[in-house]
What does this fold into?
Amino acid sequence: MEGFRAVILAAGKGTRLKSELPKVLHPLFGKPLLLRVLDTLNCLNVEEACVIVGHGREQVAEALNADEAACAVRAVVQEPQLGTGHALLQVRQKLTDWAGYAGNVLILSGDVPLLEAATLQGLLDTHAAQGNDLTLLAATMPNPFGYGRVITEGDSVRRIVEQKDATEAEKLVQLINTGIYCLNWAKISPLLDRLSNNNAQGEFYLTDVILLAVQAGFRVGAARLDDPDEVLGVNSRADLAQCHEVLNRRTLNRLMAEGVTIVHPASTLIAPEVSIGADSTVLPGCYLQGKISIGKRCVIGPHTTMSGVVAIEDEVKVVHSMVRDARIGSFTNIGPFAQLRDGVEISHHVNIGNFVEVKKTRIDHHTNAAHLAYLGDATLGAEVNIGAGTITANYDPIRDIKEQTVIEDGAKVGSNSVLIAPVTVGQNASVAAGSVITKNVQAWDLAIARGRQVEISGWVKRVKGISAEEATSKP
Ligand code: UD1
Ligand code: CA
It folds into this structure.
């Protein structure tokens, strides 16, 4: 298969979103629309791609640079933004090394994020098979409102009319323009010079190139798409919500086909990047977004969120919890109501229970922190027990620094202890409940750091003025 070049239109403001953020940077499951389009493109044999930027172009360029795969893409500035045809004209005018390009160019929209690579490949294949000079991707939409309509004559494509320019009869046409095209650059790009902005929006429409190409005698065809959901364009917040819904459904269907039980799809949101092993179950109310991989036979949820980079091995349970940037070993239980965040590494057979927060901490196997604890900037060995209410006091607010706590293998920390970092509790050492530990505890030692218990005989009776006889008659 021959290579091709690609242009992604992404200079528009996205007025209908009413946002300060450029439209193409609005996230779809955490990833900007534009980067989702680029990801799809990169599945194909693309030689070179450029992105038309304009509105908020510094922000868009920054997002491109920050992405590993997208940073090689060239940005071409369109200023001012006079329409989609004017956008493509910038490539013709500004990229001198494209002038002699004799191959095909795929035109994509930065606001059409659900397209699948196979569909684009289908468009390229149709273009080649029909020997076209210009092929547009068309779809039949039951409710075509807002899209350009494809006007045909017999089987041939004649032109495209935009919603705002369409007659009442044209508005009834359900065959829509997806805004995705494949064109022979040498033949079609010169037509861009001839576009006019004599239309309802006063813009230079790329869609007018279709009629110009037909009139010039070029071969113009259409590839038809079966699933119109794939070409949903994001123009409003409602469209963005719909894209989330469609992409979510696609992901859940894939996971279920791979052997994952999703008990209640309607309340489960999973980003497309997430992988989950067979025989795992996702219970209602989960929101998993990011580079997340979950092993086999895990139970996630109900009501669990994950984000960032999360790697979970087999047979793990995470109940009613929040997990961000963490690795969790097999047979470990998390929650209910635990929070793991910012670089947590937990080994196998660990138990992190109710209301336990773990931040930037490593925990070795068979260690328990079952209730009400804060473990931050800490390293816990194997078979450690953390009593309820234990706190690693990692933050020195006077010097504004974080300090480390080390709890070595086999150590037991009694309930309601505060370990003032930096501090180490040695192997198999024991910290008495209620201690405030400010010095290292040696291996096998017991550390008690609390006021000694004092008993004052009969104190309550004295205070209440109760005589000895009364005290024996009353309970
Ligand atoms: C466009 C098509 C319409 C099609 C629809 C599919 C035109 C005139 N209309 O309409 O036929 O049904 O897409 O989603 O092409 N852009 C620029 N520079 C500009 C204007 C827009 O780069 O000056 C970019 C936008 O950022 C966006 C894309 O082009 O990514 C499409 O622009 P938009 O204004 O959303 O066009 P639609 O009205 O959706
Ligand atoms: Ca659009």
User: Anything to note?
Assistant: Residues 111, 233, 235 surround calcium ion (ligand 2) (CB under 6 Å). The CA atoms of residues 345 and 362 lie 5 Å apart.
